[in-house]
Design a protein that fits this description.
- The chain has about 325 residues and is of the alpha+beta class.
- The chain contains 5 helices and 14 strands.
- α1 packs antiparallel against α2 and α1 packs antiparallel against α5.
- The longest helix is centred in the N-terminal third of the chain and has 78 residues.
- It is rod-shaped and about 140 Å long.
């Protein structure tokens, strides 16, 4: 009957059009919601894990080198005589020492092996388990650990032993921070009233900024200089947001920051999300067209049935009545 056919056709057409479109829209909105709410948290967690691993490598390498310098100083002190100290220097030089020098109390050199590095930047270190004074040296092209140890020889005279060791592992780590695309690491120290950092990627100029203890300024280097660690989103000098993990390097007196542009890191994820949404829309559009065709065939059949029903009703001379299952008259 017309009362049944027309509403059925309309419902089928609406269902064929809106059901796939609604599913596609919900899928797209769900993907965008998850990306917006969880992407930054996931990046911060990854950044923290990577930074912690790099800091542990730096700490362990400095401690090992500091221990090696302490062994050299102890051996030199035990040998006492200059000839024996020279033998100690020659023995240790192949094990990563680029320069060793024994001085008198007035600074006059007594024995020298290798060439001392010039320091563009020197950070005092507080290495546990080492003897004497330690410092991290940046010569402009190389990172070195310098150790100064004072002792008395067998005659009771004061001596000072200075040793320098290149740090190839740390230098490689800071030169190629490829743990994350676009990530940059800074290793810094507090000198007097300013923060000074090794050049980014060990290329370019030394970075410095004023040191403000317990500052309320949201700056990861200031926070790390105050002994705090954590992660967060910050603004650079141009007002652009970036994410960063910051922490003191335990047992050294240094601190570090690993930062990255969240937009750069999210670009690949965003591209894949857009491609996924485009694919969903394409599949939905194609599926909708196919479904509409099927529905249109059924609707055409129903309309044809309605036409035949009307022709029959109009052509007969006798009275006809259409009853439903309950016996009620639908058409007469």
């Amino acid at each position: 009957s017309p009362q049944v056919v027309e509403p059925t056709v309309q419902r089928l057409l609406r269902l064929a059009t809106w059901a796939p479109a609604t599913v596609a829209l919900l899928a797209g909105l769900s993907g965008i919601f998850i990306f917006k709410t969880r992407a930054d948290d996931a990046l911060l967690q990854s950044l923290t894990a990577i930074h912690r691993g790099q800091i542990n490598q730096i700490d362990i390498n400095l401690s090992m080198r500091g221990t090696r310098a302490t062994i050299l100083a102890n051996q030199s002190e035990l040998r006492g005589e200059l000839k024996n100290v020279q033998e100690v220097m020659d023995e240790f030089l192949p094990f990563g020492f680029s320069h060793v020098e024994l001085r008198q109390a007035n600074g006059q050199p007594l024995l020298t092996v290798g060439v001392a590095a010039g320091a563009q930047l020197e950070f005092p270190l507080r290495l546990l388990g080492t003897k004497g004074e330690s410092s991290l040296i940046w010569s402009g092209s190389n990172l070195l650990l310098r150790q100064r140890t004072r002792f008395t020889d067998q005659a009771g005279a004061w001596r000072e032993l200075i040793s320098e060791q290149p740090l190839p592992l740390i230098q490689e780590l800071l030169s190629n921070p490829n743990a994350m695309q676009g990530a940059e690491q800074q290793v810094c120290g507090a000198l007097a009233d300013e923060i000074r950092c090794l050049p980014m990627g060990l290329k370019g100029n030394i970075f410095s900024q004023p040191l403000k203890r317990n500052s309320r300024i949201e700056n990861p280097l200031q926070l790390a200089a105050d002994g705090r660690n954590g992660t967060g989103t910050f603004l650079d000098a141009q007002g652009r947001p970036y994410i960063a993990a910051y922490t003191p390097i335990a047992g050294t007196g240094l601190f570090s920051k690993l930062s990255a542009n969240a937009d750069v890191l999210n670009a690949d994820i965003r591209l894949k999300l857009l491609l996924g949404l485009a694919l969903i829309l394409l599949v939905t559009f194609s599926g909708t067209l196919l479904l509409r065709r099927q529905v249109q065939r059924q609707a055409t059949a129903l309309l044809d049935l309605r036409r035949k029903h009307t022709e029959v009703m109009d052509s007969v001379q006798e009275g006809l009545m259409l009853l439903d299952q309950q016996g009620n008259i639908v058409t007469a």
